């Protein structure tokens, strides 16, 4: 009987510990805060490191395969306005954790090379960048990073002109 009571107490403590860990929601990154660095590969296996982008304004569109159309809308609008501007760069960072394990990475990369997104798409296979940036799955997570590596703007939003104009104003604020 004593072992059963101890077993129940230990089980209850473990449950409470797990539940409290899950209840803790990390605060989103704050404007002015240094952003986490990352190095990811694109579909051509070329590496892209955030550290190497210092000196440029970086626009990150973070999403997953289920909201790729929304991610692409953001990328298309960006390309229309900033294609010729070499001081601003954009990336779509795809959370690849939702890709079924039986689908080979090579197959996914071939598909992406055939159906190219409007801006370079980086593959976050383990979701570590999405975790570091505390993204959500339902909508694109948009980040503007200053030339010195700090967060200038963050929002979770499907594409709309009003939000795009706010984002554009932030980017344009960094022009010489």
Structure overview:
Mean pLDDT is 85; it is low at 10-24. This protein has a seven-stranded mixed β-sheet with strand order 2-1-5-4-3-6-7. The radius of gyration is 20 Å and the shape is globular. The chain has one domain: Glutaredoxin. With 176 residues, the protein is an alpha/beta fold. The protein has helices at residues 2-23, 68-82, 105-114, 128-133, 161-172; strands at residues 39-42, 47-49, 57-64, 88-95, 120-124, 141-145, 151-156. It is built from five helices and seven strands, in the order αβββαβαβαββα. The longest helix has 22 residues, at 2-23. 37% of the residues lie in helices and 22% in strands.
Number of domains: 1
Per CATH, the superfamily is Glutaredoxin
Largest sheet: 7 strands, mixed
Task: Indicate the CATH topology.
Answer: Glutaredoxin
Count every beta strand, where a strand is a DSSP E run of 2 or more residues: 7
Helical fraction:
25-40%
Oligomer kind: single chain
**Amount of beta strand:** 15-25%
Report the CATH C-level class.
Alpha Beta
User: How would you describe the shape?
Assistant: globular
CATH architectural designation? 3-Layer(aba) Sandwich
Distance between the termini: 76 Å
């Amino acid at each position: 009987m004593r072992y059963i009571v101890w077993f129940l107490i230990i089980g209850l403590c473990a449950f409470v510990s797990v539940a409290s860990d899950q209840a803790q929601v990390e605060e989103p990154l704050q404007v002015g805060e240094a952003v986490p660095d990352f190095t990811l590969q694109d579909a051509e296996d070329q590496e892209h490191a955030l550290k190497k982008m210092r000196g440029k304004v970086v626009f990150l569109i973070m999403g997953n395969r289920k909201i790729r159309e929304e991610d692409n809308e953001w990328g298309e609008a960006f390309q229309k306005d900033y294609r010729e501007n070499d001081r601003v760069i954009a990336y779509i960072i795809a959370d690849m954790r939702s890709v079924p394990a039986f689908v080979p990475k090579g197959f996914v990369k071939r598909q992406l090379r055939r159906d190219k997104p409007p801006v370079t798409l980086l593959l976050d296979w383990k979701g570590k960048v999405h975790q570091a940036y505390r993204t959500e799955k339902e909508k694109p997570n948009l980040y503007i990073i200053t030339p010195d590596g700090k967060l200038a703007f963050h929002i979770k939003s499907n594409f709309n002109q009003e939000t795009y104009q706010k984002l554009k104003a932030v980017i344009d604020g960094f022009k010489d």
